[in-house]
Specification:
By secondary structure, the chain is of the alpha/beta class. The protein has twelve helices and nine strands. The protein folds into two domains: about 150 residues, Rossmann fold; about 160 residues, Rossmann fold, CATH 3.40.50.
């Protein structure tokens, strides 16, 4: 496989990729990381290319990794706050899309509503990249799979335990990626926080092909028992602040703490997409433990961003 199969494509969901394409992106990300630490600068891949970043939500890792990735590959990026564009004054997305496609080579958009991304992709003839929506976070999932492969040497057959909000956008993409690559994923969540049914159905289809297992459980110990990877995310995402007290009450039994972590394999890795709320979804001692790989996971957002941008925009 080479760049050509992905060139010019949108990436709104992990499900937009085949398992082979996902593996290719992970391998390319690892190669970019190796070359980065070898001091090799690859500033010609996206020379002359321009990426627009349309963000409705705050961001640290997604924005900086995409901007740094474009710079390191020789391209440029423009940060375009949704509120500062005419979108913030009511211009239709389809109008903005048809204008920006004439200025830019690609758009990475971070939005509240996934359907806004779908409309943007429908009307823009340049690649649209999901930089986070209420439904998915594919860039995070690619970095997560890269990190697991880097730390464990394989993905297929591993047990991944995710604890907390099962309707989480990060979990949706993680679940799809894991099932595509043959990893078993156990999701421990409260009854009213189950994953999106359509995404779960698609993940189950992928799992049936790869031999992976997807289980939704209510007991956090069952999820973590003999797990190779323990993953969690914040319980209150941007836009859910009004539900904060209820969410914390509903999900408190799914906190990742040292007592729960004892049920995982001794060499388990702890993952979190960040930012972390210490004392809520995870305790300080787990986040800062030798098992934690969250800082490497965050760094890998840069190398996977380079891989995605290189293949979509080149």
């Amino acid at each position: 496989m080479n760049f050509r199969s992905l060139r010019g494509r949108d990436l709104l969901s992990i499900a937009d990729l085949t398992p082979e394409e996902l593996k290719f992106l992970i391998d390319l990300s690892l190669d970019f990381k190796r070359r980065f630490y070898a001091g090799e600068r690859i500033i010609s891949i996206l020379e002359g290319k321009v990426l627009g970043l349309i963000f409705q939500k705050h961001s640290t890792r997604t924005r900086v990794s995409l901007e740094a990735a474009m710079s390191q590959l020789g391209g440029r990026s423009f940060y375009l706050s949704w509120s500062e564009l005419q979108l913030g004054r009511g211009e239709p997305i389809k109008d903005t899309a048809r204008v920006l496609e004439r200025y830019l080579d690609g758009i990475a958009a971070r939005v509240y509503r996934h359907r806004d991304l779908v409309e943007l992709a429908e009307y823009a003839r340049i690649p649209i990249i999901n930089a986070l929506s209420d439904l998915e976070h594919p860039l995070q999932a690619i970095a997560d799979m890269m990190t697991i492969l880097e730390k464990k040497g394989r993905i297929e057959g591993l047990k991944i335990a995710f604890l907390g909000d099962g309707s989480d956008n990060v979990l949706h993409s993680l679940m799809l990626a894991a099932s595509m690559l043959g990893a078993n994923i156990y999701i421990a969540t409260a009854p009213s926080y189950d994953p999106n049914k359509d995404i779960l159905r698609r993940a189950e289809e992928e799992a049936s092909r790869s031999g992976a297992e997807i289980r939704i459980v209510r007991d956090p110990v069952e999820a973590v028992e003999n797990a190779d990877v323990v993953y969690t995310d914040v319980w209150v995402s941007m836009g859910q602040e009004a539900e904060r007290e209820k969410r914390i009450k509903d999900l408190q039994k799914y906190q990742v703490n040292s007592e729960l972590a004892k049920h995982a394999k001794k060499d388990f890795i702890f993952m979190h997409c960040l930012p972390a709320h210490r004392g809520e979804e995870v305790t300080e001692d787990v986040l800062e433990s030798p098992n934690s790989v969250v800082w490497d996971e965050a760094e890998n957002r840069l190398h996977t961003a380079k891989a995605v941008l290189a293949v979509l925009l080149s």
